[in-house]
Amino acid sequence: MERLLDALRREPRFLAVLGPSGSGKSSVVQAGLIPKLRRGGLPGSDRWGIITARPGERPQQSLEAAGLAGAEGGLVEAARSWLERNPEKTRLVLILDQFGELFATASTADAAEFLRQLYSLLQADLPLTLMLIMRDDFFSRLAKEAPPALFEWVQRGFVHISATLEEGEIAEIIECPARKVGLQFEEGLVQAMVRDVLAGGGERAGRAWPDEF
Predict the structure, then answer these.
(1) How far apart are CA 183 and CA 66, in angstroms?
(2) What single DSSP character describes residue 33?
């Protein structure tokens, strides 16, 4: 968790979260990082707008369905319009979960166009953060198919989540959703759950929910 926050402190414009299948990449972001940002984990991040989508076969359509109106017509203008419509938000964070879907399900032409538009987003003069969550075995596909300048962003700004999560990361994944709805755990229960996860019951220690892509 802290590694992700540190990465965003260093470069708030881009973050790629990579790791093997089942390493808990999505869980760390969805149940840990996003709630932390909404609570002001980084200066001003409680006033950031966050849109999360999975690219699927039609990535721009997926972003539009997730709340980025006009995405099918172009990501830069859609992001600019979103910020204009939401003046109380100081930054727009676009999170593309299961980013490997782009290579597994989208057409070659659609994937290439989407990658080009993502690079245009990073170049645009907008208060914006782009975050990709992807299985690391898609890294070579990204290296091959992304515009070289976009891949440079990936090389500079990625965090690798290992198959074994730290105790604090597992506890955060357990506690964050509960805090969000006002629930509290009995004393010692979270620690017991963390020990159970790390024990693994024959699974890899610290393995979280499986990722498809």
Answers:
(1) 27
(2) I
Q: Rounded distance, CA 34 to CA 39, Å?
A: 9
Please report the pLDDT score of residue 168 as a whole number: 72
Residue in the structure block whose two tokens are 């198959």:
163
Q: What is the spatial order of strands in the sheet that 48-53 belongs to?
A: 48-53, 91-96, 128-135, 14-19, 158-160
**Smallest Cα–Cα separation from 213: which of 60, 107, 54, 93?**
54
1 SS3 class: coil
For the chain, domain boundaries: 1-160, 167-201
At residue 203, the pLDDT reads: 38
Q: pLDDT digit string (tens) for 107-150?
A: 999 999 999 999 999 999 999 999 999 998 888 899 999 999 99
Q: Taking the CA atoms of 53, 54, 57 and 59 in sequence, report the sign of the dihedral they define.
A: positive
Joined together, the tokens standing for residue 203 give 């699974």
Give residue 184's Cα distance to chain centre.
Answer: 26
Overall fold of domain 1-160: Rossmann fold (3.40.50)
Collect the ranges in the chain with pLDDT lower than 70. Answer: 163-166, 169-170, 172-174, 176-181, 197-213
Cβ-contact 40, 86 below 8 angstroms: no
Q: Find how far residue 155's CA is from the centre of its chain.
A: 16
Long-range contacts of 71-75 (CB under 8 A, 24+ apart): 74/117, 75/117, 75/118, 75/120, 75/121
